[in-house]
Records
---
Amino acid sequence: MKVIGKPDFLNLYYKQFKPYLRGIDISKWNNLNLYLLTPEEMPNTSLNSTRPHFQPPNTIRIPIVNIEGIDTKVVFDSNIHLIAHEIGHFIHTTYLPNEKIDDPLWGKWANLTGNKLDFTWKTTNFGGSRHLYPHVPSFEDFANNFKDWLLGKCVYMEKFFMSLWKQNAKINEEQLNIFKDILNNTGEDGKIKLFEILSKYNPRAIIYLK
Ligand SMILES: [Zn+2]
C-alpha cells in the first residue's frame, strides 16, 4: 500500500489513520495506491470522480476539503471513515469475485454479517443539487462492514477479513473480554502495563480498546 499526497496530508494520515492499521500486514495490499488530494487535484472525468472513490483495480482518491476556520485535524478526522470504506472496496475487488451470488466467500460474509447478497445496480437519488448515485448494494454493505471492522467496531469479523490476505486473526471476542476486564479492573498501573504489552505483542487489539 502506497500513500500519496502533499506532506501535511501525509502527516495527518500517519497520525490519525495509520494507527487503525496496527497489526495488519498492509504489505499484502501491495498494489493499493491511496491518494490524498486537494479538491482541485481530483480528476474531473466522470460524475463520481470528484468525490471520494475507489477506481478498480487499485486506486483510491480522497479529496481533503479544507474549511476555513476549522482545524485540519478535525477536517482529516471526518475523512477517516471514508478512507476505511474505500479500502473496503479495494478488498472485495481484490479478494472476492465480482457479482457471484453463489460464491462461498461472499456467502460466508453474508452469513457472518446477516446481509442479503444483492449484486444488481441501484441508483439512489440524494435529491437537491446532487447527481444520481449508482451503486451495488452488496459492495456498499461490504465496504461499510470492512470500515467498521478496521475502526475496531466488530471483532467478530477479524478472522474473516484477515484470512482474505492470509493473516491470522489477532484477537477474538474472548480475548477482547479479558483485555477489557484488565483495562477496567486493574487500576492505572494495570492499564499502562496492558497497553505496553499489547503494543509489543498484539497492537491490533488496541484498536478495540480505544
Ligand atoms: Zn462505497
Note: Residues 2-96+125-164 form one domain.
---
Amino acid sequence: MPPKRDSTSSAAPTTDTLSGLGGDKAAQSITPAMVALGDSIFHGKVGNSLCFTCHGPEARGSTLAPDLTSGRWLDTDGSYSGIVTVIRSGVPTPKSHPNPMPPSGGGVLSEPMLRSVAAYVYQLSRRKENRGAP
Ligand code: HEC
C-alpha cells in the first residue's frame, strides 16, 4: 500500500484531491443505489467493463493501474464530475503505468452506468478508513 497522506492534517485540503469535498454539487446527485450498481459494474457483474482486473478487487491498485481509494489522483481532480470524465475517456497516456486505460475501462457503459461506477469510485476515495493513520 502506498504511504498515506499526513495523518495529522487529514482535514486540510492540499493541492488536489479534496477540492471537491464539501463543495462538490455534482456529488449530491449520488444515491446509495448508484453506488451499489457501481460496485457491480466495477467487479464485472453488470456490464462488460472489468475495472477490477486492473485496479484490483478492492480498487487498491496493481502494477497495471492506480489505487482509487487513496484520495490522491494522477489523471483527475477527484471531483465527482472529474471522475466521470476520466472513466468516460480513459487514460491514453498514463502517468505512471505501462499501458493505457481504454474508454469506459474497455467496456460499453451507458451514461447511468458510467455515473454509477464513478459514484462507487468517488465514495471509495472518500471513506474515512482510507484516510488518516496507516
Ligand atoms: C486495462 C487496465 C484498466 C482497466 C480495465 C481500467 N482502468 Fe482505470 N486506469 C488504468 C490506468 C493505466 C490508469 C492511469 C494511471 C496513470 O496515469 O498512471 C487508470 C486511471 C483511472 C482513474 C483515474 C485515477 C487517477 O489517479 O486519477 C480512474 C478513476 C479509473 N481509472 C477508474 C476505472 C474504472 C471505473 C474502470 C472500469 C469502468 C477502469 N478504471 C478500468 C487502467 C485500467
Note: Confidence is low (pLDDT under 50) at residues 7-20.
